[in-house]
Write a structure and sequence with these properties.
single chain; 432 residues; alpha+beta; 36% helix
Length: 432
């Protein structure tokens, strides 16, 4: 970025923030929006209300009240952001990503805080967890929405919730239910996802996958190794019941069913990821998952992927894509999940995502949505000025046209080999 571009950033930010002016009924409050976002984009080491106020020449109490007490429509601001993405960044190859993020906190006053597993520290810690919906299309990735995960202990103490400003209608819901709510709201605002992906914390919940199928949303979801099913549909007896053939966990199927155990591994190079290029070895089959009532469910693609440099690390993915979908395509979507991890990393290291210090639910939601707004601005600037960003161009469109591009390369190798050792054909018949 040269000096001329830096000088242009101020007017560009003003034009960008103008999209959100109707979220504020009073001009002074609208001016605080610009001050807060400029603070998030600054090089301040700490980006909570007080240091931002001091940096931007605003009274500290005023900016604190802007975040937690002033009357402005942060729900409409979220809607405007989603409509902006839907209008300016629609893409036939878009990927929606579901994930949650933990922010360590001290004390017991921050909304939703308690000791629970925190991904940021990798252990059980005192933290707040929020559920997020991300969006990746071409050179751009951003966060579309977020919502607080309210633990059961908080929900059981409604007096404590009211002190933190948590509305009575905000109750405990599993994270996957919150994720579906975020998805539905984004779709209502015009956002369309060619694909959706998530980790096993979400993919392992039958309610989420069933909900996505009911919404006709194509997905590739990581699932736990304990997910059970059949590689061949059990026979129906004369009385219309399924034959007594027990379902097996996908881990067991990989170890003992010849259709997977004897299938050669085929290597694929994942050209872009959170840690750079990687090679994964893959097996593929169709799986009839066991439903909660014990019967076989709709057939799904099953991908088993192990990291070539650590073959103990095995991941399992399922997808409701059409049977003719290629393995390259499914991998492309599955390994797009790192894009939301990059959003979290950028937010926490550059934009103060985890710097909220208030005790108000409204303040927490407003802070995270303003961080998402600042992140979207950064993404649009990089896209406009042609800075190289990770792409998802290879993701197939909603119409089914498949293009393998920059994320998953079609560098097939011999069975069980390493990239560059030869060529092979995927067991399902797709050119690897």
């Amino acid at each position: 970025m040269d000096a001329a571009q830096i000088r242009r950033l101020g007017p560009m930010l003003d034009r960008f923030l103008a999209h959100f002016h109707d979220c504020f009924s009073r001009r002074p409050t609208r001016e605080h929006l610009a001050a807060y976002v400029r603070g998030l984009l600054s090089d301040l080491p700490r980006k909570s209300a007080e240091p931002i106020a001091l940096d931007q020449g605003v009274a500290v109490r005023t900016l604190q009240e802007f975040l937690g007490a002033h009357r402005w429509d942060h729900g409409r601001l979220r809607d405007r952001l989603q409509q902006l993405v839907a209008g300016d960044h629609a893409c036939d190859h878009s990927v929606g990503i579901l994930d949650d993020s933990g922010c360590p906190k001290k004390g017991d006053k921050t909304p939703g805080v308690q000791r629970q597993y925190c991904g940021a520290t990798g252990k059980v810690d005192n933290c707040v967890i929020t559920v997020h919906l991300g969006y990746a299309a071409g050179d751009l990735h951003c966060l579309l929405d977020s919502e607080l995960y309210l633990p059961r202990d908080w929900d059981a103490d409604r007096r404590r919730c009211r002190r933190a400003g948590i509305p009575d209608e905000r109750t405990y819901r599993p994270k996957w239910q919150i994720a579906l709510e975020l998805y539905d709201h984004a779709v209502a605002n015009g956002v369309r996802f060619a694909w959706l992906t998530c980790d096993e914390g979400y993919g392992g919940k039958p309610g989420l996958l069933s909900g996505l199928r009911q919404r006709r949303q194509r997905y590739v979801a990581e699932v736990p190794r304990t997910l059970s099913g059949w590689l061949e549909l059990p026979a129906l007896t004369d009385v219309g019941r399924w034959a007594e053939e027990p379902a097996q966990a996908v881990e067991q199927l990989l170890a003992s069913d010849p259709r997977l155990a004897d299938q050669p591994w085929v290597a694929y190079r994942v050209k872009e990821g959170h840690k750079g290029p990687m090679v994964w070895e893959v097996k593929h089959a169709m799986l009839f998952p066991k439903r909660e009532d014990g019967d076989p469910g709709w057939p799904l693609h099953l991908l088993v992927a192990r990291y070539a440099l650590d073959r103990v690390a095995v991941k399992y993915f399922v997808s409701n894509a059409p049977p003719e979908a290629s393995v390259e395509t499914l991998l492309l979507v599955a390994f797009s999940r790192w894009r939301i991890e990059r959003c979290f990393e950028d937010g926490k290291t550059e934009l103060g995502f985890d710097h909220f210090e208030g005790r108000s639910y409204v303040g927490l939601m407003r802070h995270q949505r303003l961080v998402a707004l600042a992140h979207l601005f950064c993404g649009r600037v990089c896209q406009r000025w042609g800075e190289k960003q990770p792409r998802a161009d290879g993701v197939p469109g909603a119409g089914g046209a498949e293009r393998v591009g920059a994320v998953v390369g079609a560098e097939a190798v011999g069975a069980g080999g390493a990239a560059g050792e030869g060529s092979g054909e995927h067991p399902a018949g797709a050119a690897a």
